[in-house]
């Protein structure tokens, strides 16, 4: 499912099943060869490294068009590039392949080996979109798991009961004991985020401070 702004909701999202693996598909249209490579990414830095690797593998191609999607919902980040092709004929159809299949934390790069025959804008849109979809069809997917990382601070007097409660609900990633307070970083299923925050506030009679909540899709 996608929100009105085009972002995907967590309940409908897929990610590539194998992290770090690439999947390749090719398509020839009027002697132009399109090669699509798809992989999983966890950050824009990951994507840049992937793009450089694909360009290095296909040294000398004139166009390395791409799109990627990271995260979901309001925090989703999507980017695309036509890389010199006519505006809107390459990057957007590649991105549309990710969006229509509700795939995130993934990137697709499509290189084109020109065959000497003009394809026109419509032909380019169809070719880039088709090979991107074919690459995704060949990549095993799984349902994305959404987790929340909640950082909060509680009075030192409540630290014992809070630590016991949060260990029962999720994984305590970090704790920092100070003279008068303790800070915790706890990771739980996204569906348990509100329950965790309510529990912490209840056990401290409202004295806790929720510092930050970060949603992670993996």
UniProtKB/TrEMBL annotation:
PROSITE patterns: UPF0029. InterPro entries: Impact (IPR023582), Impact_N (IPR001498), Impact_N_sf (IPR036956), Ribosomal_Su5_D2-typ_SF (IPR020568), UPF0029_Impact_CS (IPR020569). It holds the Pfam family Impact_N. Residues 30-136 form the Impact N-terminal domain. Belongs to the IMPACT family. This is IMPACT family member yigZ. It comes from Gordonia paraffinivorans. The gene is yigZ.
